[in-house]
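New to this. Please check both lines:
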Amino acid sequence: MGTKREPTARQMRLAVELRRLREGAGLSAREAAALLGVNSVQISQIESGVSGVSEKRLRRLAAHYACADSELIDALVAMATDRTRGWWEEYRGQLPTPFLDLAELEHHAVSLREAQFLYIPGPLQTEDYARAVYAYRVPDLPSEELELRVQHRMGRKVALESPTPKPYTAVVHEAALRIMVSDRTASRAQLSRVLQLSEADHVIVRVIPFDLEHFAGAASAMTYAEGAVPRLDTVVRDGPHGAAFIDSEAQLGAFRTLFRKVEAASLDPGRSRDFIHRLAKEL
C-alpha cells in the first residue's frame, strides 16, 4: 500500500478555516459530528487535512456553524472541490514541500504583492540569478537538486506571464538591485529583466532608495497573496528553517498595514523605472 500524500498548504488552510468556523460557533468536534450525523473522528480528519470534504457536507457544516458569509463559503467550496494538478506537481517528491505550496498559492491567488530588501523577488529573477542564489547555499546542493530548484523558480514566472496573469506589485530595495549575486553580465541582464516586466500593465515595480530618510522597514520582507476573500489571504515569509505561511486574522491585518507603509515609502513606478535604468547603465 502506498504512503498517503501529506496535505498541501492549501488543503491545510481549508481544514484550519473549517475548524475556526466550528470554534467560532462554540461547538466541539463531537457536537459538530452529531449535527452532521457522523462520528467525531471524521470531523477531526477533515480539520487536520487528512480527509477531504464534499460541497454538500461543507455547506451543511457552514449552516450548522451559523456562517452567513456567502462569499467565504463559496471560496471554501472552491478550495474543497478544486482538483487542479498544476505544473508544480512534477516536482513532488523531488523538492521540499514548501516549494510546491508556494507555487500553488501563487496559482490560486487573486493578486500578489511582494517586498524584498536583499534579493530580487523570485518571479522576477533570471535563470542565472536564481542559479547563483541556490549555488551559495551551505552545505552545497547536489547539482541535480540545484537545477531542479532553478527550474522550479523559472516555472513560477507563469504567475506573471500566463494568458491570465496575476496583478503583481513588487517593492524592492536598492540593496537588492545593487548586490551582484553573480557576475556583472548576469546582474545587467537581471536589471533588464525587471525593467522589461515593469512595463507590463499588470506589474508594478517600486524602488526604495538608499538615501530615503526615516525608513526602518528593512525587516519587512514578505510575499502577500490575496485570496478570494480577505480572510483567505496568506503571507509568506522566509525563515531559517524554510518558508512560513501566515494566515491568522490579526497577523494578516498587521502585514497589510506593514506593506502599505513600505509601499508608501517607495518611489512611484515611473521614477522607479528611471532609477533601475540608471543602475543598469552603471554596470
